[in-house]
């Protein structure tokens, strides 16, 4: 009764493990396309193998009556579930024959015959199944995600059906199959020959929990060895790596190298863009024809030196007579300039003058025409935003004021427009009121 229960329990466990093949490698909802993101792996595999079955093990023979082992071909397969990169659970299946003979008589120290010649046994392993834990000792490869060599150790418990034929015949035990437990332990290594395919080379010693495996009850539990070679195939999506072969160190090195290369490319692109911006800025605010109008605002580039131009950089056909006289700047003149400064407004973040500022600017233009004053325009900003952008904006606003004054008749050659950006604050930039004071265009008559 107990034997039937243990046999049934073993078969149910093995069938339950193998049935999980249909549910393996279920995709997660986490994206696996990004760098350093969670990965999906193939965790199920199957293997087939063949090799030599022999009663001689690294621990010696279990029955000393027979001294000549006969190797037979064994064959089997397994289904494996990899739980961790180092740990897997494996259901093994094995069949074959184990045989051992005595060719000559055994003689003790007194010359008595202890074991007769031409005796032996042949045990047929009808079937066997075992459930083992497989521990991958190492995953040897730091330059490739797929391991080159994986040494492993294994141990577990199994159940088998076997029958022994002895010479001479043992009438008590021969002629039928008996079932019983055994303990498989082993070692080996796997060679990753392709993605999802491994060559499996191993050596197992099976400790049978019976003294009658060889048909002769010697009082000591029997054992046999199985040296084998085979192939293992990973199941699931071929694009996914096999968990037991996966080298996280190699993957980390590869992805870190890719990220470093991407950052270098991004930095190089940013530097190139910044250089183009600087060159364009210098070109826009330069004055190639020296007419007092920046290239960006000059609609008539290449005017001859000394030509009087308007705010667009185009020659003025009718020049007003320039009268040299002593210039006296009165308080009323300064008030005209102060009013223009206090009423000067631009569109947000632009150099476009709002129409409400035209009236006071017109008075400044009239003052320049009537009294032939010279005027310096100095644009300033707060420290909000990049310095290059603020320098450009302050220069553009000063040039816009100059262009407007010239359009109202002022002499462009007597107006100087300069941008200082955030470099000359008159108040703190830590408060909104202070930043408002720093955003200004200063008018200096002389």
Would you write up a description of this structure?
With 446 residues, the protein is of the alpha+beta class. It has two domains: 2-18 and 39-255, Porin (Beta Barrel); 320-445, 2-Layer Sandwich (60s Ribosomal Protein L30, Chain: A), CATH 3.30.1330.60. Helices cover 25% and strands 32% of the residues. The protein has six helices and 14 strands. The protein has an eight-stranded antiparallel beta barrel. Strands 13-12-14 form a three-stranded mixed beta sheet. It has a two-stranded antiparallel ribbon with strand order 5-6. Strand 3 and strand 4 form a beta hairpin. Helix 3 (331-343) packs antiparallel against helix 4. The longest helix is centred in the middle third of the chain and has 38 residues, at 248-285. It starts with a helix and ends with a strand.
CATH topology name of the largest domain: Porin
* C-alpha end-to-end distance: 120 Å
Counted by DSSP, the helix tally is: 6
Q: Classify the beta-strand content into a percent band.
A: 25-35%
Instruction: Name the strands of the widest sheet in spatial order.
Output: 1-3-4-7-8-9-10-11
CATH architecture of the largest domain: Beta Barrel
- Tell me about the largest β-sheet: 8 strands, antiparallel, barrel
Low-confidence sequence ranges: 1-32
Summarize the amount of helix as a percent range: 10-25%
CATH level 1 class label of the largest domain: Mainly Beta
Which series of helices and strands comes N to C? HEEEEEEEEEEEHHHEHEHE
- Which overall shape is indicated by the principal axes computed on the Cα atoms? rod-shaped
Structural class based on helices, strands and sheet pairing:
alpha+beta
Number of domains: 2
The tally of beta strands, per DSSP, is: 14
Radius of gyration, taken over Cα atoms and rounded to an integer in Å: 48 Å
Question: What's the mean pLDDT score?
Answer: 82
């Amino acid at each position: 009764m107990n034997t039937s229960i243990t046999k049934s329990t073993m078969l149910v466990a093995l069938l339950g493990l193998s049935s999980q093949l249909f549910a393996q490698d279920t995709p997660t909802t986490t994206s696996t396309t990004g760098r350093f993101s969670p990965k999906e792996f193939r965790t199920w595999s199957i293997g087939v193998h063949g090799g030599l079955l022999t009663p001689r093990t690294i621990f010696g023979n279990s029955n000393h009556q027979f001294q000549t082992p006969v190797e037979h071909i064994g064959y089997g397969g397994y289904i494996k579930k990899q739980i961790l990169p180092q740990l897997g659970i494996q259901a093994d299946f094995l069949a074959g024959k184990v045989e051992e003979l005595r060719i000559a008589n055994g003689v003790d120290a007194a010359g008595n015959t202890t074991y007769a010649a031409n005796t032996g046994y042949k045990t047929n392993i009808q079937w066997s199944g075992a459930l083992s834990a497989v521990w991958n000792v190492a995953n040897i490869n730091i330059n490739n995600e797929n391991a080159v060599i994986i040494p492993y150790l294994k141990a577990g418990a199994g159940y088998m059906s076997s029958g022994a034929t002895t010479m001479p015949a043992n009438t008590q035990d021969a002629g039928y199959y008996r079932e019983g437990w055994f303990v498989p332990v082993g070692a080996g290594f796997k060679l990753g020959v392709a993605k999802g395919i491994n060559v499996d080379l191993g050596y197992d010693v099976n400790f049978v929990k019976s003294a009658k495996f060889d048909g002769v009850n010697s009082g000591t539990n029997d054992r046999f060895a199985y040296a084998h070679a085979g192939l293992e195939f990973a199941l699931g999506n071929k694009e996914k790596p096999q968990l037991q072969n996966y080298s996280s160190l190699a993957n980390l090195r590869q992805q870190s190298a890719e990220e470093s290369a991407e950052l270098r490319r991004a930095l190089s692109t940013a530097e190139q863009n910044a250089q183009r911006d600087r060159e364009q800025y210098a070109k826009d605010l330069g004055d190639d024809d020296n007419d007092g109008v920046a290239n960006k605002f000059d609609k008539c580039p290449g005017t001859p030196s000394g030509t009087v131009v308007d705010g667009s950089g185009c020659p003025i056909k009718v020049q007003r007579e320039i009268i040299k006289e002593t210039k006296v700047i009165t308080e009323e003149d300064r008030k005209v300039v102060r009013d223009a400064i206090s009423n000067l407004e631009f569109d947000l973040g632009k150099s476009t003058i709002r129409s409400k500022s035209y009236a006071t600017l017109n008075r400044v233009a009239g003052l320049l025409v009537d009294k032939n004053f010279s005027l310096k325009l100095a644009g300033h900003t707060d420290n909000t935003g990049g310095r290059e952008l603020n320098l450009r904006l302050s220069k553009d606003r000063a040039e816009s004021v100059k262009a407007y004054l010239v359009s109202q008749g002022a002499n462009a050659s007597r107006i100087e427009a300069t941008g200082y950006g955030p470099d000359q604050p008159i108040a703190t930039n830590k408060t909104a009121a202070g930043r408002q004071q720093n955003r200004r265009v200063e008018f200096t008559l002389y």
